[in-house]
Amino acid sequence: MNKEKLMLVSLAVVVLGLAGFGYGLWACQKEAEVLNWPSVQGTIVTSRVEHSGPVGSKHRRTFALIEYEYKVGGKDFSSNIVNASDIGSQQGSSGVRTSDSLGAVETVRSYPRGNRVTVHYNPANPSEAVLEVQKPLWVELALWGGLPLALIGVLAFFWLRKNMSFDPAGKPGA
């Protein structure tokens, strides 16, 4: 691989690391907001594992579909967002929470149909609600793994720039 390609890879690592860190910051900010939301009791109305995509395909996804109903100020609401980090994502808006097969089964077991649950809702928009207010482990990994990944990319970029020579044809030099 020539120097230019290696430098592009190092820049891609920087972007990936910064994107992970940015997402982690956003999710932490969302969690902080949700922690201050009021809560009411609700009921799980749908709890099942679903699949999309062809069987055996690498594009096949497994989902835990969790839907719940609750009342705020005498008005009925329903939601399908389980975790605060899913607010505004396709998972929440499509009614599913993506997960691996074991995670989907575990989520369904945690929220059986008919169960009473605590629902945290946005007082400015009661149709926006979640069941879990604490961020999942993968958000922590994105947050705290993103910065070191970006730093490694930056260091690699400048090391390559300083220590690898190349000729105009793009062949690595001595």
Q: Percentage of helical residues?
A: 40-55%
Number of strands: 6
Shape: elongated
Number of helices, counting only DSSP H or I runs of 4 residues or more: 4
Task: Calculate the mean pLDDT score and round it.
Answer: 78
Order of helices and strands: HEEEHEHEEH
Secondary-structure content class: alpha+beta
The fraction of residues assigned to DSSP E strands is 25-35%
- pLDDT under 50 segments (min length 5)? 90-99
Oligomer: single chain
Ends distance:
14 Å
Major sheet: 6 strands, antiparallel
- Number of domain modules: 2
Q: What's the gyration radius in Å?
A: 22 Å
Describe what this molecule looks like in 3D.
With 174 residues, this protein is an alpha+beta fold. It folds into 2 domains: 3-28 and 140-163; 38-132, no CATH class. 43% of the residues lie in helices and 27% in strands. It has helices at 3-35, 90-93, 101-110, 137-163, and strands spanning 39-52, 61-72, 75-79, 97-99, 116-122, 125-130. Strands 1, 2, 3, 4, 5 and 6 form a 6-stranded antiparallel β-sheet that branches. α1 (3-35) packs antiparallel against α4. The protein is elongated. The chain starts with a helix and ends in an 11-residue tail after the last helix. Mean pLDDT is 78; it is low at 90-99.
